[in-house]
Write a structure and sequence with these properties.
ten-stranded mixed beta sheet; Alpha-Beta Plaits; alpha+beta
């Protein structure tokens, strides 16, 4: 009897054309399927819990596949990591019910977008955060995010290339966390910033959004729009108007992909606790 195996993976998406296989190749799915072929001798197709774009990362993505292999679930992690490139890591593996589907069974997904508002980029984290060289008004951004919580038509916050028949999605949570990782010589700079950018601050901003599903480029457009709120170009209360317009041109730009990470996927009581951090 064929088994349904689920693995939880993390990856640095910098050098990949996204997760899902495509004609141009070089995707995370391709690497996983190559590793499975080497390990089992089977041509296995995997299903991921998300379809991250080129350059987007994943901290915790669930992937399931069916196999005739008798390899114990406890052995898949080590066996696959030995056959995967260094920028893709399997954190855990377990057998799941036959009807489990990594994408369709998911109940909640969380993405994180990271913005570095320090004067200079961080040479060690530059691949995982967007550098915004001027400070942002974090409180205004927090206020703007609250208008997105709930069930809405997110047509204003998706790419015109979206093929989904419905743009109605539910955001359960949208929040900001700040991290004060300052540049060298930041004291003098902070004093100058206080005069030049009143109400704004430097540091690292992590934007977390949790929902029942996300549209094409949705999180990146939310991030780009919130940065315009932080710059003072869009008033926080106007986010509701942007939503109601159902018009992509009303929202802000699509933020660059490398600041985005698929942070976590939840399945209710379907799966055991697998958070590896």
């Amino acid at each position: 009897m064929r088994r349904n195996i689920c693995v939880v993976i993390g990856y640095d998406g910098t050098d990949y054309n996204g997760f899902q296989s495509q004609p141009g190749g070089n995707t995370v799915q391709d690497k996983l399927e190559d590793a499975l072929l080497t390990l089992t001798g089977e041509n296995i197709r995997v299903t991921g819990s998300g379809r991250t774009d080129a350059g987007v990362h994943a901290r915790s993505m669930h992937v399931n596949f069916r196999t005739d292999s008798h390899i114990p679930a406890s052995r898949w992690t080590l066996a696959l990591n030995a056959r995967l490139p260094d920028d893709i890591v399997v954190h855990s593996a377990f057998e799941v019910p036959d009807d489990f589907h990594a994408r369709r069974t998911a109940s909640r997904k969380t993405y994180r977008y990271t913005i570095n508002c320090n004067k200079n980029p961080d040479v060690f984290r530059r691949k995982y955060e967007f550098h915004h060289h001027t400070p942002l008004n974090v409180e205004a951004m927090r206020e703007g995010l609250q208008h997105l919580i709930g069930e809405h038509d997110f047509s204003s916050f998706t790419s015109p290339l979206s093929t989904k028949p419905s743009h109605i999605r539910t955001l359960y949570e949208a929040r900001l966390e700040t991290e004060h990782r300052y540049d060298v010589f930041s004291s003098a700079m902070a004093e100058a910033d206080a005069k030049r950018y009143p109400g704004k601050q430097r540091g690292i901003i992590h934007l977390y959004v949790t929902g029942n599903g996300f549209l094409y480029n949705m999180v990146r457009i939310i991030a780009g729009t919130m940065m315009q709120v932080g710059e003072g170009k869009i008033a926080p209360e106007h986010i509701s108007d942007i939503l109601n317009a159902r018009d992509r041109s009303r929202a802000g730009p699509t933020a660059v992909p490398h600041g985005l990470t698929l942070w976590n996927v939840e399945y209710g009581e379907t799966l055991p606790l697998t958070d590896h951090v």
